[in-house]
Amino acid sequence: MCKTTGPAVQRTGELTKRGWTAREIRSARTSGRIEQLRQGVYAVPGACRPLRTAARHGGSLACVSAARHLGIWVLEKPPAPHVWMRGHGHRRSCPPITGTDACGCVEHWDDGASPTDAFGLPPVPRILRQVLACRGVEEFFVAVESALRQRLLTRSGLAWLRANVNAEGRAALAIARSDADSGLESLVRWRLRHRGLRITTQPAITGAGRVDLLIGDRLLIEVDGVKNHASRKKRHKDLVRDAAAAAWGYVTLRFDYAQVVHDWPSVEAAILGQIDAGHHLR
Ligand SMILES: [Zn+2]
Ligand SMILES: [Zn+2]
């Protein structure tokens, strides 16, 4: 995320419009206050690395990289930025990733009205459509719920998205909610969507407080994000919550990021095993 207000990457012309003289630009370059990314393109202090790389490549951040930049949840950090080239961009020479001969940037060539600044991000609905085309419907669904939750997707943005995605995307939009607490929670709901289960998001449970998901009446699902590493204190807190919930007749299943993202079959088997045994019903 950029630590700067205003455009993080600017052309000479934009700097001039903001009152910079040629001499000031030169001296800011020399002193390292601004970085020349390529001829006539500068990064101002606080501009983040993905944004600088995208500008070097010839565009602005797109797709999952733009989503991450705005704080929208995406499954994994891409190794190199996804870059919006607009419809008629020009690929520039972009430094290769160490140990390879390519920069690894993933180009997006969809055309669209450009934001007012040349290196600005695409609007959120366009970012989400790029995610659908590039990463598939599952990651799209998760990103949409994250954007809704953070109020980054307006009513008109949602309408644009509905009109500009395929049938698969529209089906995902139809079930997207604005109250999912984490991307993992969205992912679990998405993957269970065809099972015909009654799933409640973020219910308040007697003895346990807010939990991530309730399936049926009794089965609690808790998913721990990648940042919630199991500190001893957190582990203790979880055990206390699980015991309290159990005292009220609930069964708790807990999964972490690696399980949900990389070993879904075992997560699904655990959930369906409880359901087959009827543990989710009163
Ligand atoms: Zn992409
Ligand atoms: Zn590149």
From TrEMBL:
Task: Name the domain of life this protein comes from.
Answer: Bacteria
The question of whether NAD is a record keyword is answered with no
Domain (DUF559): residue spans on this chain: 195-274
| Keywords carried by this UniProt record | Endonuclease, Hydrolase, Nuclease
Q: Name one Pfam family in it.
A: DUF559
One term of GO molecular function: endonuclease activity
Q: What protein does this entry describe?
A: Very-short-patch-repair endonuclease
